[in-house]
Fold:
Amino acid sequence: MAEEITYADFERVDIRAGTIIEAQPFPEARKSAVKLLIDFGPEIGVKKSSAQITVHYTLENLVGRQVLGVVNFPPRQIGPFRSEVLTLGFEDEAGAIVLAATDKPVPNGRKLM
Structure:
């Protein structure tokens, strides 16, 4: 388990719901990954993310999927791609990533409470 934090620490992490509007291959990545465009609603807009989610997902079944992302980390350069948000997921038993998502649709940009 990670070190204990305060509620104020948690509030500083801005986790929002967004919908994947585009998914492209990312062959330049060191580890198998895809490039995503995620719509986080009118307040935040469309953001780019690189995600290592190639085991359980195809490019076609990613588009339209609602996901969770951290939108207030600084952008990160991943090879030739600038990732603007961290798309959240969990490792399965084999270490492949399973996306974190809501069980019912919510408006894009809605903050995790």
The two ends are 21 Å apart (CA to CA).
